[in-house]
Amino acid sequence: MSYPLSALMPKDQIRRARQDEAGEIARLFLISSDGLAAYIWSKMDMPGLTLEEVGAARYARTGTAFSFENCHVALRWGEIAGMVHTFPIEGSADDSEKNDPVLRPYAELEDPGSLYVSALAVHEAYRNLGIGSRLMEHVYGIARSLGLQRVSLICFERNEAALRFYRRQGFQEMDRRPIVPHPTLHYGDGDAILLARNC
């Protein structure tokens, strides 16, 4: 007897991302970054490519922090509903970030020794279903498996919905810096806030 594919797979899954999903990762990263990814990708020397294509090329790489290898995707009935991108913060930011006035605030807010969540995003059609919370629970498990005691992330002060979500998750403010406005950023004022929680 044959069964429809949906009957053979769990409704919700979280798994490691695949290289061929780099384009979807880029789309979700653009959602999560509030314009910061657009700024970074616009500075990359890839003429003729759209921002999404630049992001896809960035996340198709291997052996670097900003890679599909550090992404996990949430699936609902086999479709990508959201993703999270994490990597351990092992030292201070590189000089290129510190010397870029727009990126400097984020470089100064790094939390060495933590697992850093650089992106968490859920497609609009799948929001308010608990997918973001399940992805964060997955992140805490990753941190524990790596022997890391903290998870950290940076959130824009003006992104009030995201800030409420992370505070419900138990994150507390560790530090903050004023953002440097840029046309790509969704917010023209306020602070970038370093949040962390033990796991």
Automatic annotation (TrEMBL):
The keyword Amino-acid biosynthesis does not apply. CDD domains: NAT_SF. This is GNAT family N-acetyltransferase. GO terms for molecular function: acyltransferase activity, transferring groups other than amino-acyl groups. It holds the Pfam family Acetyltransf_1. Residues 12-199 form the N-acetyltransferase domain. PROSITE patterns: GNAT. It comes from Chelativorans petroleitrophicus. Keywords: Acyltransferase, Transferase. InterPro entries: Acyl_CoA_acyltransferase (IPR016181), Bact_Acetyltransf (IPR050832), GNAT_dom (IPR000182).
